[in-house]
Specification:
Distance between the termini: 60 Å
Shape: elongated
Helix content: 55-70%
Radius of gyration: 31 Å
Number of helices: 8
Low-confidence stretches: 1-10
Order of helices and strands: HHHHHHHH
Structural class: mainly alpha
Strand content: under 5%
Mean pLDDT: 79
């Protein structure tokens, strides 16, 4: 009997601890559900319109009679107009739904080539590091491009400075581990680790 009493107290406490979600959460869930429903409906409509357009275009190519061709072209124009109307009224997600962030694109091969030419023209290490820092203000880089840039530096200290300057502008930071291999000393690798992960 005593065990049942303890169970009843625990059950009552657990029930009291469960609070309903706040109204903003409920509203967000409802808005998200409505958006998904509208989006799926709109997607189905777009697919159906595109199929209709493909069918009409195929029929126009096969019809030899001018009157039928004119009628099909008018029908095609009406369907294209409907497609544009659906696109214009595109369903927008609610404000709380975050869109995926697109990764920036690495510097073009022409921009990388100009950067390498500037590095070759720079006579002093300070000038080369400055050139890299200026380029990092305007461009993003892939790990492979950073590996190419690093070849213009002879000393580990300069390479550490360059990698540290370019790291925030890497488009593929998940591959940055390969940059440690470009440093010849363990001390330089440890220094880079500290600079990238303070």
């Amino acid at each position: 009997m005593r065990l049942l009493g303890i169970f009843a107290v625990l059950w009552a406490g657990a029930s009291a601890a469960q609070t309903p979600p706040d109204t903003s959460t409920v509203a967000k869930r409802a808005a998200t559900k409505a958006y998904v429903t509208q989006f799926v409906g709109q997607s189905d409509t777009l697919v159906a319109i595109r199929k209709e357009l493909d069918t009409l275009r195929g029929m126009i190519g096969m019809v030899g009679d001018t009157d039928q061709r004119v009628a099909l072209l008018a029908q095609l124009a009406a369907v294209e107009s409907r497609l544009n109307d659906v696109r214009a009224g595109a369903v927008r997600p609610p404000a709380h739904v975050k869109r995926p962030v697109e990764r920036p694109k690495p510097a073009s091969s022409a921009a990388l080539s100009r950067l390498e030419n500037s590095l070759r023209a720079a006579n002093f290490r300070e000038d080369k590091v400055r050139v890299v820092r200026e380029a990092a203000k305007r461009h993003f880089f892939s790990t492979r491009q950073v590996e190419t840039i690093i070849t213009h530096f002879s000393f580990d200290d300069d390479r550490v400075d360059t990698i540290a300057a370019l790291y925030p502008r890497l488009t593929d930071q998940e591959n940055a581990h390969g940059l440690y291999g470009l440093l010849s000393s363990r001390t330089a690798r440890e220094t880079l680790e500290k600079r990238l992960n303070p």
